[in-house]
Structures are given as structure tokens and as C-alpha cells.
Amino acid sequence: MERLLTVQQAAEALGTGVRFPRRLIEERRITFVKVGRHVRIPETALASFITEHTVEPIVTTYRRAA
């Protein structure tokens, strides 16, 4: 069984306030589970969200004018 995180735990993992994961849930931008009236975020959904929104740096080389 996969571990389910509270909104507070998800916020701590993302390094944000509680409002950000709540907004992700409201906008249906992240997978979540309703347990009664409680909302939980699966760890794999959080990891997937982070992976999908990771931006790789652009590596450029500069040439000096001759």
C-alpha cells in the first residue's frame, strides 16, 4: 500500500505553504485521494508532479569575438 500524505506534509515536501497544494487539488492538477472528508496526496503523485515540472538548465558556450 502506498503512503498517503496530508496537505501539510505535501507542502513541506514541496517547500511551500499549505495554500499551494490545496490549489493544485482544487484545480485538479495533482492526483489526490478523498478519505471521508479528508484529502490525501499519494507520494508517487507528488514525485510525478515534481518530475513533470522540473526544468533542466540550458547549457550554452560563449565564443569570444576575434
Describe this structure in words.
Strand 2 and strand 3 (38-42) form a beta hairpin. Strands 1-3-2 form a three-stranded antiparallel sheet. It is α+β, with helices and mostly antiparallel strands. The protein is built from three helices and three strands, in the order βααββα. It starts with a strand and ends in a 14-residue tail after the last helix. It is 39% helix and 15% strand. 11% of the residues are buried. It is elongated, with a radius of gyration of 17 Å. Helix 1 crosses helix 2. The mean pLDDT is 94. The protein has helices at 7-14, 19-26, 43-52; strands spanning 4-5, 33-35, 38-42.
Descriptive tags:
3 helices; elongated; three-stranded antiparallel sheet; 66 residues; alpha+beta
Radius of gyration: 17 Å
Which structural class do you get from the secondary structure elements? alpha+beta
Mean pLDDT over the full residue set? 94
What's the total helix number?
3
Distance between the termini: 63 Å
**Largest β-sheet summary:** 3 strands, antiparallel
Please report which band the strand proportion falls in: under 5%, 5-15%, 15-25%, 25-35%, 35-45% or over 45%.
15-25%
| Side-by-side strand order of the widest sheet | 1-3-2
What is the total tally of β strands?
A: 3
Write down the overall geometry: elongated
Low-confidence segments:
none
List SSEs in N-to-C order.
EHHEEH
Q: Which range best describes the helical content: under 10%, 10-25%, 25-40%, 40-55%, 55-70% or over 70%? A: 25-40%
